Amino acid sequence: MTVSALIIGCSGQELTPQEIEFLHEYDPWGLILFQRNCQNPEQVRALVSSFRDIAGRCDAPVLIDQEGGRVQRMGPPHWRKYPAARVFGDLYKNNRDNARQATYLITRLLAEDLQTLGINVDCLPVVDVPHRDADNIIGDRAYSNEPEIVAELAHLAATALLDGGVLPVIKHIPGHGRATVDSHIELPRVKTDAAKLCEVDFASFVQLSKLPLAMTAHVVYEAFDDKNPATLSPTVIEDVIRGQIGFGGLIMSDDLSMKALSGPLEHLTRSAVTAGCDVVLHCNGDIAEMRSIAANVPRLAGNSLARAKAALKCLNYPQDYDRDHALFLHSRSIQNSL
Fold first, then answer.
1. Per CATH, the architecture of 4-333 is what?
2. Quick check: is 122 catalytic?
3. Do the beta carbons of residue 144 and residue 156 sit within 8 Å?
């Protein structure tokens, strides 16, 4: 594998000649899809296939943010609508067994939707623990405000994805739950002391530290690094994510085009890699920006290459499950009657 340490987006429902040229030149590790790229199942399969044909890798990662609730890149009429994670967390407070079953089976159904399209990575589960004073950018995307519940349900969701032939991505490591601003718009700064962060915010990620993929948070944790967000901080990635949390899988940056990050993309790219991101993510499909980033990322090699290979080895052939009961639970969840 001599691919670039890069995941990119594309601009539309099929690859443009400029994007095809870019893929041949830089061979990014993966492709991420958004609503603009998804019109109907036949079109999505064709787009995924064209990317893999150019890459020459049948397991080349194709990612999507298909959480349910507010963050669902594919929806009706061609795909199912899914509930927000908080629906499962609310159920957990009343009936733990039902919540566990619903989390697994409904997420397993979601995995089936993706796997039949050739999408093999879902940026789910959200493992953040929202704080009451935080911006709503996380909100009901999180399973609960209690780290123990988040960890348990997120682990079930990740297991369901893996059983469905889809790799999960835990996010936003080491925790986005205290951010008082939306990192898509500006840079959050968290002043909470290290002990409290370890006790609450990082705790849920510890329980999922053996999973293969994680996405960083564009958040400054002043207790560890008062200058750089986690994505660009060697201290946070090495001491917190690799150290305290014990995450050993592949770390991808959150989208480098988000407004939380400032400065030239070339500098941001080099900083993310130097900080310890194995792969950088760029989502908006702007070909000029993609070229600026691609010219500044290394080829996947060393530990990063080993982590990438290990992640892809976790791809399973879909396992049997009670699909009829999953459909029943899904219909109840959409009717808010779980």
1. Alpha-Beta Barrel (3.20)
2. no
3. no
